[in-house]
Design brief:
With 195 residues, the chain is an all-alpha fold. The chain is built from eight helices and two strands. A two-stranded antiparallel sheet has the order 1-2. InterPro entries: BioY.
Amino acid sequence: MTARSLTLADVAVPRAGLLHNALLVAGASLVTAAAAQLAVPVPWSPVPLTGQTFAVLLSGAVLGARRAFLAQALYLAEGASGLPFFAGGAGGLAVFAGPTGGYLAAFPLAAAVTGALAERGLDRRFATMLAAMLAGSGAIFALGLAGLARFVPAEHLLASGLLPFLPGDLVKSALAAAAFPAAWRLAAPRDGGRA
């Protein structure tokens, strides 16, 4: 695989200037905020199921590493400022000190990881796109579990912070893995045939 900087956003908005890039970053932060409102409590865990992580990883795949990192950093700043952008309409700095703080802190890193892999062409085939999505999820789970460990006994950590979320992550990753190669096939004429 050769390094490249072309993403689906670059094909959709060729030669994007500073304003276009700023709008893409802001838009991705707002999509993440909207996805966070799709929250389902998990009775045995302080961490809810949300659409948030899917939006984080999609921002990486669509925007690429740098813009996705900035989008998720902006999302965290918006929520930290008190806007009701986190799961269940929560906001404020106190959320970062709670059980979900580690997951939130991982969002910029996870978006950048997924974006960097997409920039190298891993978003063009099912298996490699699945791997890119799972790599981003791995970053979220690693930091999330590290933060959750302060609130949940070690023997219950995986049952509270990982296992309930794996089936949904696999389904979401598989959907993205199927959708992105199809999107690139549609984008191929605009991409000069490089897709």
